[in-house]
Specification:
alpha/beta; Bacterial polysaccharide co-polymerase-like; Rossmann fold; 9-stranded mixed beta sheet; 4-stranded antiparallel beta sheet; elongated; Lipopolysaccharide biosynthesis protein; transmembrane helix
């Protein structure tokens, strides 16, 4: 069992990597910006490096010794290469080189700026590199700095030796003077114990004098050369820069890395869902379908045999086999925020797909603020199925007269209850008329699809959740945040509903702008005088209009859901 689990995880890892890479490509502008910056930096490096020339010298360091061929001598322990490198880069060396080049002492800083000293690992070699815009000047300054370093180290070693010789000589002079005085005294002493004691003291003094003179001789015999130049600087024949092609290539690679890093950081802090898995985790339900880009047609099923129509049929079949929907056959389709274009298209096409399977479908437009379905669909009130004919109410018939019929082409037809602007939207949505419309799904052969305004824009959908139960969320992952989807799920569950799943779509920028302009026009028209009520809304008292109207507190009436009779069309 564990082996199978490990194998499945191993197979999922490449797919996760591919998905992450696809998500990074969403931020092409960041990657392109990084590449552009890298190319500009590479071009600048290639252009500025074309006028740069580097001359080099090498010095092998050695410690002062009287016998350079002695096998017991270990120069690598006597010389600290880190300290020697810092000495070579010091201002004292730069001042000596400036004097040797005939420059002023103030130019020492400029000499230090172009000098670089390195020490190859496991060697006693100092590598001097001097960079200048003139190849001959670079070689001349490199040699001057190298020689100035050698002279400085030689002076330092000789100063140390002189100090040691002075110290030894200061110790030797008193001992030699004491020995001379003792020799004069011994000549005046008679033979005996006193003379023997004086001879013993003189012997000690002579040993001390011999030891001091031996040290002085050894110091004077030391070779104080600090090192040997093994390569002199010559004028370079080519520039030190990597060249424009190589600089552009390196800049491009670095730019790609920076762009990917920026895209990754943007992806980590992006509040929008990055994949269908993020949407599913946010709503705690499956993603039932992903509509192709620009596929928000009002009615696609039954009009053309296309990929979009098949996607809607697939969503309808997945809902039909979901026990939570199959038990009650009520579906509320809502968007997260923004325009209702996508949610209306999903609701209409799902109604057509259900009708295609033989169900009696009623589509209820619960948008009582900017209704538009009756104008956008091919509706008819004269030719309607048996189950929607006007007449006495009987078992299995739709309650109330006046449902419109939508022609869905080869898929058949389904009923439509279009919305109508009302004064009191919450009262209309919670009226008995709305409850009876949704209750039509109690017939085993019927289904009710309700489309409502976006959840985060209005609370209309929440007023219907307790009667519809099953909710389908339609969202564009590019324009909705994960926190919004989580909040929508919490609102729906808190109102007593169930999230059946989500449908994702991606609209083109042009279509989104057009939809936004249409929505603005509708909202603008809604602020003006109310649209005249259709004939069905202006029924006489004896036409049985009581279920259509609810008296307000001030005595006015509220038109709930518009119905159109066959005689009015």
């Amino acid at each position: 069992m564990s082996d199978t689990h490990v194998s499945v995880r191993g197979e999922d890892e490449p797919e996760q990597l591919r998905e992450q890479f696809r998500q990074l490509l969403r931020y092409r502008w960041l990657i392109g910006g990084g590449v552009g910056i890298g190319l500009l930096a590479g071009a600048w490096l290639g252009i500025t490096g074309a006028d740069s020339y580097a001359a080099t010298t090498d010095i092998v360091l050695r410690a002062p010794t009287s016998d350079p061929f002695a096998p017991t001598l270990s120069s690598d322990k006597a010389i600290n290469m880190g300290s020697e490198r810092q000495t070579a880069l010091s201002r004292k060396v730069a001042e000596g080189a400036a004097q040797r080049l005939g420059m002023r002492a103030d130019d020492a800083d400029r000499l230090q700026h172009g000098l670089q000293v390195t020490n190859p690992p496991q060697t006693l070699v100092l590598h001097f590199t001097y960079t200048s815009s003139d190849p001959k000047e670079a070689a001349r300054r490199a040699n001057a700095l190298t020689q100035s370093y050698i002279d400085l180290r030689k002076q330092q070693w000789e100063a140390v030796r002189g100090s040691m010789l002075k110290s030894l000589q200061d110790q030797l002079d008193p001992v030699a003077k004491q020995n001379d005085e003792l020799s004069k005294r011994i000549k005046q002493l008679p033979d005996g114990s006193a003379a023997d004691s004086a001879y013993a003291v003189q012997a000690n003094l002579l040993n001390r004098i011999t030891d001091l003179r031996s040290k002085i001789t050894s110091l004077k015999a030391l070779d104080m050369t600090p090192g040997n130049v093994i390569r002199n600087a010559t004028a370079p024949t080519s520039s030190d820069g990597p060249g424009l092609p190589l600089s552009l290539g390196l800049g491009g690679l670095v730019g790609v890395g920076l762009g990917l890093l920026g895209a990754w950081v943007r992806l980590v802090f992006d509040p929008a869902p990055r994949s269908a898995g993020d949407v599913a985790r946010a709503v705690r339900g499956p993603v039932l379908g992903a509509l192709p880009r620009g596929s928000a047609g009002v009615l696609v099923v039954g009009r053309s045999d296309s990929r979009v129509a098949e996607e809607y049929r697939s969503i309808a079949f997945r809902l039909a086999y979901d026990e939570r929907f199959a038990d009650r056959r009520r579906l509320l389709v809502v968007a997260a925020r923004g325009s209702m274009e996508a949610s209306v298209a999903v609701a209409v096409n799902l109604a057509a797909s259900f009708a295609e399977t033989g169900k009696n479908v009623l589509l209820v437009e619960a948008d009582l603020r900017t209704p538009s379905l009756a104008e956008r669909l091919d509706v008819s009130a004269a030719s309607r199925p048996r189950w929607s004919r006007t007449g006495e109410h009987a078992d299995g018939e739709w309650p109330g007269p006046g449902h419109l019929v939508v022609d869905a082409g080869e898929s058949g037809a389904f009923g439509l209850v279009p919305g109508e602007r009302v004064r009191n939207v919450p009262r209309a949505l919670t009226s008995a008329r709305t409850t009876r419309l949704i209750a039509e799904a109690d017939d085993p052969a019927a289904a009710v699809v309700v489309v409502a305004p976006p959840v985060l824009a209005y609370a209309d959908a929440l007023a219907l959740v307790d009667r519809v139960d099953g909710v389908l969320i339609v969202c564009d992952p590019r324009t909705v945040h994960r926190a919004d989807l989580v909040r929508i799920r919490e609102l729906i569950v808190g109102a007593g509903g169930t999230v059946l799943g989500a449908v994702t779509h991606t609209e083109s920028r042009r279509r989104e702008a057009a939809g936004s302009r249409r929505g603005n026009r509708r909202r603008g028209s809604g602020t003006s005088a109310a649209r005249p009520a259709p004939p069905a809304a202006r029924t006489a008292p004896d036409a049985g209009a009581d279920p259509e109207r609810d008296p307000d507190a001030d005595g006015s009436t509220t038109i709930a859901l518009r119905t159109v009779r066959s005689g009015d069309r």
